[in-house]
């Protein structure tokens, strides 16, 4: 990670761009150095915004940039049975066939991007002394939420990872290159989220909030399978906090910061520094790369059978290649794609669609999961009510009297399709090996249980002089 730290130091000094709201637009007014930057609360707030800027990622074509959230679909959705490449070409096709290599540049991008964000969060935590007494606990909680969110993704994708819980120097290689146990990583995640729950409120959608910390902590408990009751209580507190389902499913994604969004990563249309390109990449001929995150036949069938009115919002037949199906849940800025899905009245590569990390429908379905706990079904009225709310919005209004584990998993698939949840859901429900093995057999891939984890990037192992071990199967 030595090469990362040099980039990060430069970024933290020079890249204080916005995340899509007025308060996310600090303007540097003087020359800044590492020694004199954090002298007052205003500068610390700039550092806080810099964390979200790191989550945004950079909308460019450089292979050494940190693209962060903008490319996370590769390592999540495209490693499930939901999406694939259109033509089976390039590094992205390794995800199609479950043949990801340690040298894969997309994996390396993801890994370094999110350790970059951890560095930014740790930098805020190291400089809390300049904050006012009134705001110090809130700023600390915000940085801990971001750190926990990133580590939760990393530990689910890579398994045991280096646990960097403070700002480290270039010679701190023991921390940088020592993989810590899952217990240690999850202990930090839980501790950070508990602090966030205690000290945050629900002011923001594009920044950390109490509800976001509660929902994420509930998902952590469900992932660990250790405390379903605590997860249920956390989710019920979110359900009593004023969030609600948008009546129209389309508006969830194109009426930003709506009543359903709990935490999203903000982007601004038309601005190179703050826009995103992923929604264009999923189309035909408009993105930095094209024809990725195309819909599998398996997912098309699931949406056609179970999606209700969500299907037309989520997918469409590719107007250029009718044998293919595109994700449309995040069409750039809500556009219809124009003639043949290829022309826009704006530059689709500079789209402003926010990326939704947590929303109320996810909370309702996790609520069912928490009540079901280790069982295979539930008819508890509270669970039925949460499940029915999601289905009613989809136009599926037949009364539900019992919910099986498979029905819950299916509902999560069509409700949260292409939101980078499917792989994690399969793993959490304990059916990933069975489901993905069958999917690979049908599509010509080669899946084994070791494919549930990504490889540690080979470049990181090289920098560690072999101290950083590789995951099994790579």
UniProtKB/TrEMBL annotation:
Residues 351-474 form the RagB/SusD domain. Residues 22-222 form the SusD-like N-terminal domain. The keyword Repeat does not apply. It holds the Pfam family SusD_RagB. InterPro entries: SusD-like_N, SusD_RagB_dom, TPR-like_helical_dom_sf. It is found in: Cell outer membrane. Its main location: membrane. Residues 1-20 form the signal peptide. Keywords: Cell outer membrane, Membrane, Signal. Belongs to the SusD family. This is RagB/SusD family nutrient uptake outer membrane protein. It comes from Sungkyunkwania multivorans.
